[in-house]
């Protein structure tokens, strides 16, 4: 997003005061409320003049003729980029987060579920955690178990401390002996590889050998073609605290509520929004505000998101969703703290 030119001191102070006041009150802000929050003594007339300038520049809007002003998405973006001062979490909140996520050898799925609940509780918004897609997980061990009706149970253990089961249906029967040989081959040759890379390597071997590949690779290929190592591109998604956002005055409109609930139900849309965080471990906490959201249903929301790491490798994302009238300073600090703690806990597994 294009950076806005820096505002002069008086307009910065007035804009910052309006944003902070509106975040707390949820009501349009008038000049009298702002007069008490600026460093210099300004008359209501002077503040109204500054507010009119900010409105003309697209930072404020007036919902009703006689009402005060409310911040626009542009105002929130300027605020978080240039004016916001991060708050520190209190020792009590840090202790709550740490105790909530504590657990020896805690399964990664359980850690992610707990993290989404903690994010919702501390931020008072919706907590989201996107785990690694199956194809991005690192193979630790795989097992194939023959079931009736040409079905195969696939048990995949991957790093960090993840276990996933899926049932495949094959077009022709495969013996348990062939399944065992296939699993032994994958475990011996590809431990520590990402499941996506394993798929590519197997199919490259088959392509190189053309029709001459042996029975072992043929069995493995059948299983991979049926998705034994995953090809949906979607990781587990944990969502907590949806009711919190619906309690906000911004979502009294039934249409907005319906759109938002549909967005939460459609996993692919949320993953698309969180996906920008999966590109680089260097990105840190990111903030997406209002119209910046790729999904129309989320245009009244803001997201604060951070990458989820396993030994410096991006494997997912976590964050919070709330109205654009969000306590950004608190949300950023909370997401950053939970992300660092989860990354540490994942990497010791």
Written description of the protein model:
With 349 residues, the protein is α+β, with helices and mostly antiparallel strands. The protein folds into 3 domains: 9-83, Arc Repressor Mutant, subunit A (Orthogonal Bundle), CATH 1.10.10.10; 91-132 and 235-347, 2-Layer Sandwich (Beta-Lactamase), CATH 3.30.450; 135-225, Enolase-like, domain 1 (2-Layer Sandwich). The protein is built from 13 helices and 10 strands. It has helices at 9-25, 31-35, 44-56, 73-83, 91-101, 108-123, 176-190, 195-209, 215-225, 242-246, 254-265, 267-274, 328-347; strands spanning 60-61, 70-71, 126-130, 138-147, 151-159, 162-169, 237-240, 286-289, 301-310, 313-323. The mean pLDDT is 83.
Blueprint of the fold:
Blueprint (H helix, E strand, L loop, with lengths): L8 H17 L5 H5 L8 H13 L3 E2 L8 E2 L1 H11 L7 H11 L6 H16 L2 E5 L7 E10 L3 E9 L2 E8 L6 H15 L4 H15 L5 H11 L11 E4 L1 H5 L7 H12 L1 H8 L11 E4 L11 E10 L2 E11 L4 H20 L2
Antiparallel strand pairs: 1-2, 3-7, 3-10, 4-5, 5-6, 8-9, 9-10
Q: What keyword list fits this structure?
A:
three-stranded antiparallel sheet; 349 residues; alpha+beta; Enolase-like, domain 1; Arc Repressor Mutant, subunit A; Beta-Lactamase; elongated; five-stranded antiparallel sheet
